[in-house]
Amino acid sequence: MGCAGSSQTKGDRTVKKIRKPKPWKLPQPITKTHLMQMRDEFWDTAPHYGGKKEIWDALQAAAEADLDLAQAIVDGAGIIVQNADLTVCYDERGAKYEIPKYVLTEPTNLIRDS
């Protein structure tokens, strides 16, 4: 039994609760269509950055899910979350996975397509 201030742990590591990234903006405003193209390109090329394809697939599913489902996906895949917003994660073998914020949320200076 833990005290009120204890953290949930999985094995010998603390499990970070996932949250959305803080509001941010790109140097130049972009359209929703361009943002979606950038996201598609990232996920298409992500396995080439290193790590396992299965982990990249789990991270993509988590990035596209609501927070509760994302937490379950990350926990089930054994992903170690360094930054609670999923921008930096590791697999159980120590491979690093970095996800840009534009993949996880929309920038504040997004231009809606007309």
From TrEMBL:
Which Gene3D superfamilies is this protein grouped with? Answer: Ub domain-containing protein, DC-UbP/UBTD2, N-terminal domain
InterPro entries, sorted: DC-UbP/UBTD2_N, DC-UbP/UBTD2_N_sf, UBTD1/2
Name of the protein described by the UniProt record: DC-UbP/UBTD2 N-terminal domain-containing protein
User: Per its UniProt entry, which superkingdom is the organism in?
Assistant: Eukaryota
List the Pfam families hit by this protein, alphabetically: UBD
Q: Which PANTHER family match?
A: UBIQUITIN DOMAIN CONTAINING 1 PROTEIN-RELATED
The species this protein was found in = Escallonia rubra
DC-UbP/UBTD2 N-terminal domain residues are: 16-113
Q: Where is this region: Disordered?
A: 1-24
